[in-house]
Each structure stands twice: as C-alpha cells, then as structure tokens.
Design brief:
alpha+beta, single chain, 5-stranded mixed sheet, 3 domains, 26% helix, Immunoglobulin-like, 6-stranded antiparallel barrel
Length: 423
C-alpha cells in the first residue's frame, strides 16, 4: 500500500549538478528526431485498430430486417432490487419499432442492461451475435414469447392459465417482460401489479425450450466462388415470404453476369428453398458480383434486434408484414473456395464457402445455425490483419533506429567520467 506524503513534509531531493549546455543546432535536430519517431509510432497505432475493425465490419452484410425504435408503448411497472440492496421502480412492457421499408414490430427487452432510446437504429441479428449467444435459457425466453401477450390475445384465457385475476394489455405486457428479465439476467425483479406478478411466476415456471427461429430472410451461403465460363453456386433462399425479388448488382449486369436457376433461366423472383446461381461468361476478368433479395414477411417471434454497444437488445414478440433484405456474393477465379460436402452443383462449379470466409452473412437458414465457425479459423480480414502487423513491425524498427541513432557530429560526447543517467 502506498502512502501519500504531504508536499510540505517531504524531504527535498539533492540537487543534480548542472548539465553542460548542448549546442542549439544539435539539440534542435535531436528533438526533431524524437518528434518524428513519436509521430510515426502514433500514426501506426492510431491506424491499425481502425483498419482491422473495418476489415471485420466489411466481412458481414445485414441480414433480414432493420428498424428504428419508436419507444415503450404498452407497459406497467416493476420493482427491481439491485445487488447493493437498492430498490427501484422501472417500466416494463412492449416496445414498438418501425421497420425500414415498411412494417411494425412489437418487442420486449432481452435484458436490463443498455439504453432503449427512441430513434435508435436496430438490425436483425442471430442469437449467437446477441446477448442470447450461448445462453442456456434462450429457448425458454422464446417459449415465453410464444405463450404470452401479444401472441396470446385472449387475456381471460391467459389469466386463467396463470391462476391470476383479470389482466389488461398493460399488466400482461409487464408480467411477460418481468419473466423475460428473470430468465435473461437472473434479475431480482417483480411486477408491481399483483396479477402481472402471478403471470410472471407462471411463465417462468412453465417455460420449455424452443429452437432459435430462422431469419426473416436469408441466403445460404452468403458467398460462393468458382471459375468463369459456367455457373457458380448454388445459393439457397430462406424466407417466410411467398415471393421475394431477385436483383443482381449493376456492375454484374455490365459484365454480362446473370443470376439464373439450375436450368440456366434468369431469375427475377424466388421463394423459400429456391436456388440461385451466378452465370459468369468465359473471358470475364477476375472480379465479383452480388445479388440482393428483398421481400415482405412477418419477422419470426424470437428474432433478436441489436443496435450499438450501449443499446439494449430487443426480441420480437409480434410483427406485421415487414420488409427484409439479404445479399450474397460470387467471386471468380482469384479465390476458389472448396466444394461443400453434400452440396449439389453443376459440374465444374465450386460451391460453398467455409463460412469463416463468408463476406455476406445473410442468414440462414432453416438449419438454425446462422453463425457457423470456419474450420480454418481465418476470414477475409486475415490478409489485411497480417499486413497491418507487418507494417507495425517495420514502423517499430524505424522508431528504434531513430531513437538509438549515434549522436550527431556536432552533439557533445558523453563524458566517460560522468556516471550514466538513470533509465
């Protein structure tokens, strides 16, 4: 333990002998050398994290729906007891969100942490990239959503199942949110309304496990690769919509690349399970193309929406027909990805990728496995990260050379009789 000594009682340190003055020119050049070294190192450290972050950010494309938070609309009150013994009354209930492109969502807070600020922007997210990733009670939270308000609009029936008195929309929403908070955070929280509290207890006790719902719209896989002169794919559409539009990017069209079905026919609309291929003419220069699918469907109950780091994650409890988008990319022939085991493709077609190499993680999948791990552990960001690391080594060497360079010709040499200054 260190003890602070008052300045007035501290013993004065012995005075150091005056150092001989250095010539002004040499001193200036030495200072300039140190300034240059500092600037080089600062620039390298400031740039590298941002570059790596940008590479990681570019490796994913939005999947499903995106929305803006309207605010807390249907709610009651709850009482939270914190670990330090404090008691706090907080609102508990349903948030409403406006989906980009059209549609509305009703959502509950996944946990108590983070802010739910109106006008905050959210995107649909797999459980594995949300607070529910690896959470043992994630499936029980989805069960609560499927078996309570607003999925069950029969409030009298819900009250009877819970052994509660009459429920209003507000008390039903409060009881449901309290049950979710308990399962998500283990929070010591109770609904202020006695009937809402009975509903919360019932939902917590009765909750079973349900699997993660599929994305509202996804393409599986999000990236494929193969040689020119044939079809690259397949990419499978996963959606709850009856039909989605299929639009290749303008650059692809300009190169003569077409998005076709297994028979080679151009595709402009698709449904769940449809397969898409990129047909790349022979002689096309190395490059890539993307396809965007869009449609309107109900976002499945249990899908999570996340925003920034300080934003509270929200989970879907109800949805109108809402707009969603997914993107997949084809690359040729610079980086040919291995054929995925068991995949069906035309001869000479590379299918697949290991999803750690996936640039556009658009979803998934009815397999409920939207975030697969790459067997290699690498990603498209790996070369860039390696380059940044090499750059840092080079800059570090320059800094060492600058700082340890022999004295300038007109700098006074260090006297051999004088003791070396302490480090």
């Amino acid at each position: 333990m260190s003890i602070a000594v008052p300045a007035s009682s501290a013993s004065p340190a012995p005075a150091a002998p005056p150092a001989p003055p250095a010539p002004a020119a040499a001193s200036g050049r030495a200072a300039a050398r140190r300034s240059l070294a500092t600037a080089l190192l600062a620039a390298a450290l400031a740039t590298a994290p941002g570059t790596a972050a940008a590479a990681e950010g570019d490796s994913r494309s939005p999947e499903g729906a995106s929305a803006v938070l309207d605010g807390l609309k249907t709610y009651g009150q709850a009482v939270l007891r914190t670990q330090d013994g404090a008691v706090q009354q907080i609102p508990a209930g349903l948030y409403e969100m406006r989906v980009d492109g059209g549609g509305m969502l009703q959502t509950y807070g996944v946990g108590l942490t983070g802010f739910a600020q109106p006008e905050a922007h959210y995107t649909e997210t797999a459980w594995s990239r949300s607070p529910l990733g690896g959470h043992g009670d994630a499936g029980r939270i989805r069960w609560v959503l499927e078996h309570s308000y607003p999925q069950l609009n029969d409030l009298a029936g819900l009250a009877k199942a819970a052994g509660a008195g009459p429920l209003t929309a507000e008390s039903a929403a409060a009881g449901t949110q309290v049950a979710i908070w308990r399962l998500a955070d283990g929070a010591q929280v109770q609904a202020a309304d006695p009937e809402a509290e009975k509903l919360a207890d019932y939902l917590q006790r009765a909750a079973g496990q349900l699997p993660e719902p599929p994305a509202s719209l996804g393409l599986d896989p999000g990236e494929v690769s193969g040689p020119v002169g044939g079809r690259i794919g397949p990419v499978t559409v996963r959606t709850g919509a009856q039909s989605v539009t299929v639009t290749p990017d303008a650059a692809a069209v300009a190169m003569g690349v077409r998005v076709v079905d297994a028979d080679g026919q151009p595709v402009m609309t698709a449904g769940n399970g449809s397969t898409l291929y990129f047909e790349v003419p022979a002689g096309t220069p190395d490059g890539e193309a993307s396809v965007t699918v869009q449609g309107a469907m109900k976002v499945p109950v249990g899908r999570v929406f996340t925003g920034g780091e300080q934003t509270r994650a929200l989970i879907v409890a109800g949805s109108s027909a809402s707009s969603a988008t997914a993107v997949a990319t084809a690359i040729w022939p610079t980086r040919v990805l291995p054929v995925r085991a068991g995949a069906q493709g035309s001869p000479g077609t590379a299918v697949g990728p290991p999803t750690g190499l996936t640039r556009s993680t658009t979803g998934t999948t009815g397999l409920g496995d939207e975030e697969r791990l790459a067997s290699s552990g690498s990603s498209v960001a790996t070369p860039l990260i390696a380059g940044v690391a090499i750059g840092l080594v080079v800059v570090g060497g320059m800094v060492v050379l600058l700082l340890r360079k022999r004295p300038l010709e007109d700098e006074p040499p260090t006297s051999p009789e004088a003791p070396a200054p302490p480090d």
